Amino acid sequence: MKFSVIIPVYNRPEELRELLESITSQRVADLEVVVIEDGSKRDSSDIVEGFSDRLPIQYVVQENSGQGFARNNGMKAAVGDFFVILDSDVLLPPGYFQKLSHAIVNRGLDAFGGPDAAADDFSALQKAMDFAMTSFWTTGGIRGKMKDPSNYQARGFNMGVARKVFEATGGFADPNQGEDIEWSIRIKKAGFKLELIEGAFVYHKRKNTLVSFAKQAFSFGRNRVNVSRFHPGAIKVVHWLPTAFLLFSLAIPFFYFVNKLLFQLSAAIFLSWSIGVVFSSAIQNSSFKVGVLSWFTSVSQLWSYGLGLPLELLRKAIRG
């Protein structure tokens, strides 16, 4: 099959250079790259030109419309049989397309979602953010490993669809508010086979600070509500767990004045969770510093998501 790599980019030429460099090292027989410049003030024309002799590459320029619609325009311009959608802040490890094509053919997939990971040379904070987004202690590890890969909802930083899927479903229905999860649900409802390919991971080189990471997690909580506009029932019990964690964390100091035994029990639970996060991350990353930072990113991720979801539901209820 011929792969078309779809990359929306907005004011991130340096990131695009790194991603394109990682694509050039891939061993794949038939591939093209489609870069969609989504109304950037700092465009990537020079970067694209610099790779024109190393990659079959298209450069599509449009007014800013959001990453979902930018991806749609990229897929319309693409000539491949299978579209691989990547965010500009990821890097491909060696063998990515071999693992991808093997799974697509042998499992008969029409679409896929892949996990993300942190490379060895990432900063301590980047590794801590990766841990917060992928760990059992925070998300249950559902972004990387699932007992039933068909339950996975693909994320836009690393997902793909066959051309026939795009043509049948029309692509992304929203520019940037949980648009990847919404499309994943709609793809499955249309009868196509979408699954997690665990081996087709990318290195996700997040440029966040701790504050911007919290804001992003807050928007993820809000986005889940937006997805429910298209698919009633998209908010499940599991999506309320961060809110429960937030309320539990905030309630611990008040338990001291209500019931000392309840206070001790709840504090012990929170302490046990904290120790689990720190040491699990420290062992995984061979760094106690990353372990400590992972506590901050994990609390930030859970609290922010846990706040974003109910506030967006409240806003939705008020506005009607």
Describe this structure in words.
The protein has 320 residues and is α/β, with parallel strands linked by helices. It has 2 domains: 168 residues, Spore Coat Polysaccharide Biosynthesis Protein SpsA, Chain A (Alpha-Beta Complex), CATH 3.90.550; 92 residues, no CATH class. Helix content is 52%, strand content 14%. It has a 7-stranded mixed beta sheet with strand order 3-2-1-4-8-6-9, sandwiched between helices. Strands 5-10-7 form a 3-stranded mixed beta sheet. It is globular, with a radius of gyration of 20 Å.
Put the structure in a nutshell:
The protein is of the alpha/beta class and 320 residues long.
Q: Look at the structure and name the CATH superfamily of the largest domain.
A: Spore Coat Polysaccharide Biosynthesis Protein SpsA, Chain A
Element string (H = helix, E = strand):
EHEHEHEEHEEHEHHEEHHHH
3D shape? globular
Q: Report the biggest beta sheet as strand number plus sense, adding barrel if it closes.
A: 7 strands, mixed
- pLDDT < 50 stretches: none
What level of helicity do the residues show? 40-55%
- Please report the first level of CATH classification, the CATH class of the largest domain: Alpha Beta
* Estimated radius of gyration: 20 Å
Structural class: alpha/beta
**How many separate domains make up the residues?**
2
Return the CATH architecture of the largest domain. Answer: Alpha-Beta Complex
Report the sheet-strand fraction.
5-15%
Overall pLDDT metric: 96
CATH topology of the largest domain: Spore Coat Polysaccharide Biosynthesis Protein SpsA, Chain A
Q: Multimeric state of these chains?
A: single chain
The number of distinct β-strands equals: 10
Distance between the termini: 46 Å
